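Q: Hi! First time doing this. I have a protein sequence and I read that you can turn it into a structure. Is that right? Here it is:
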Amino acid sequence: MIEHKLNRAVWLIRQKNRATYEADNFRRLLMACAGACLLPAAVAGAEELTAASQDWVARDQLTESQLTDLEPYCHGTYVEPEYGFSDYRVEENSTLLKAMADRVTADPESNIELWGNVELQQGTWWLRADKATLDRRSNVANIDGHITGRSSGLAMHGSAASYDLNSADFTLEDSSYLLYDRHARGEADSLSSIGTQKVIIQYGSFTTCSPDSRAWSLVASEIVLDRDKGEGNAKHMRLEVLDVPVLYFPYLAFPIDDRRRSGFLFPTIGTSNTGRGLSFGVPYYFNLAPDFDATYSPRYIHGRGLLNEVEGRWLTENSYSELRLGYLHHDSEFLKEFPDENNGNRWALDFQNSYRIAEGWRSSIDYNAVGDNEYLNDLNRTLEIEETSHIKRLWDVNYGGETLTFRSRVSGYQTIDDGVAESDYPYYQLPQLTLDWNDSSEWFNYGVNSEYTYFWRENENLSGLKRTNGSRWRTQPDLELDLSPVWGYFKPGIRLDHTDYLLEDEPEGNDSHVGRTVPFYRVDSGLYFDRHAEMFGHDYNQTLEPRLFYVYSDYTEQSDIPDFDSSVPTFSYSRLFQEDRFVGGDRVGDNNRLSAGITTRFNDMETGVEVFRASLGQIFYYGKGDVDLSGSGEVNESESSYAGEMLWRPNQNMDIKVSGLWDPQESKTEKGTSTLSFHDPEYRKLLNLSHRYSVTDSDPDDHIEQTDVSTLFPVSDSVSLLGRWLFDLRRHRTIGTLAGVEYSDCCWRMQLVARSFLEDEDNNESRLDHGIFLRFQLRGLGGLGTGDESALSSGLKNYSARESYRDERYQW
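A: Yes, that's right. Below is the predicted 3D structure, encoded as structure tokens:
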């Protein structure tokens, strides 16, 4: 061993002329970037060697564990290899420089030169090159020849580099880089790095595509990748698809990890629903604080003008709020149809807030409003308002304890359907207060449910009970004997339903103060039988659960009581065991009926999962049910239709459900729904089949019968077809269709979907309205297109679950 000291540096000359150089005066490694792996000489000499091509591993060469999180349509992925000297650990923030080379020459006053298989390591940086020269006078290092280096999560490659030890400036010529966690790569004329976390790319590119793909890339005069902030910034950027420029931006910010950051979001391009042009928007996201952000989305719509939409979100330790606003100053297209409405000014807002007031106390607000009835149909893209006949507005304050619960609600509505009669407008609740107390002992369950509500709506053009407003006080004490051994249960009980009204604007001759008291007597009983069953090589626990439910309540005249919130729910198996045939507080039915039902279940003995369930039941009436609700809810039969339901899960990816009503007297089906839903474990294949049959209440001889078929299935690793077909079997016509193709690559995704739906015309005729939307997703950047996913999410069951699965697993 030969030892030679010079300027606090120690050379250790080892066998085979390999040398190790250690110095503590380097504050940083000569490369503040990374981008290499140890490669065979044949590979290292390959043409167009880049940081990405060095660490790209084809799919057939990956291990089973590496394949686990790889998308099925990816032909490979980047694998970060181990790096660093075998005798030294890579230590963060270390200033000690280690160097190895085939040959070393040193002049204490001028240069230190390392030749052949040069390896340098300092802190988290590791570098390999053909030659490295340190100028001791200028303190600048020059590195040449097949430069490769890496730091955690980052790799780089180039032909020549320089590093100023005084300023820590680093540049790499003819360079390329790779970010493993974002599957991102790029090339540049020159590349600079400030530390290991910030990379500045001059005249370079950024893409998440594999090394052999140029499907899309961002090309800019300057790109700054800040790994500390998790964002990239590009100046004079253009988006290229297959090397063809398609969009230009003077400045663009984009994410390089999952953190939030301010900047322009990807543009939205669509068609104007005036049918005469395009719409175009460029949203901007404001990351204002860790607990507050906002998005401004200006969008020009041909024929309408500039639509401005703003979304703000605010998160605190105890609350979460969202506010969305939309405003269009002068909609010329809208004025053509509605010349006298708001001078063409159009607006909408929705506000949501949830707040934890104290232990057990919570508040929630959901307020929505639009300036005109057509706003949601014409303009809405970002507001979370359902397109229904009535837009809800409510504020709830809730308390939940072990035995006591309380709710205060203030609610109202804005009716946006011109076809709804004023007499059918819902009532405001100003307020609704409910207080429930329920407890139990060894033998008894007992409690009191109480509610006070003031109901109001505009009544100037109404008459009779429809005109009435007022308050309602309802209290329901309940006592039940609970006998529940392991083999069954027997629960007789009594509930007293007492209601008082203080009415306003009631019909002439009616009392303003009316009330009623109706006692309910019930007996709920059932048995449990179970046995071991073996089928298809599996062990199951099968149960048989017969149930009898009897309820009695006397008839009370209620024709002088208005209907504020009562309704008759659709009859099904679950309604067999409800005390009353009405919901809401204004109608109490007269009941003398016995419900009989039976359920059998098969539960997997190993997992406990319910694999199969079937239920069947019927109601037997021992008297007429005279109380009605606007002509519905009366009972004139001795027995109800048979109500049944069945659920079968052949495996964890398939559900088969059947439910329906069958009239034994007429020997016909009244209602029936059958559905089959299937998806594979990775949600690449979806299949949904359903059939619906229903006899209309207004005309027993009329019926509705429809089929609904939807599917998404791959025809290759990258291409999937999707479709939906709704068909009216009775009228032999198509109700709606959805057909499209989806292409998924490792770096981008495209959906082209054609949609049609049945639209009623003013002359009571119908026609199919057609539309097409196109959507792109660029991995790591977001999406753009002519529509959103609402049609797919609502039309294809499990589609939303598929997207959530992809987002969580593959980080699209």
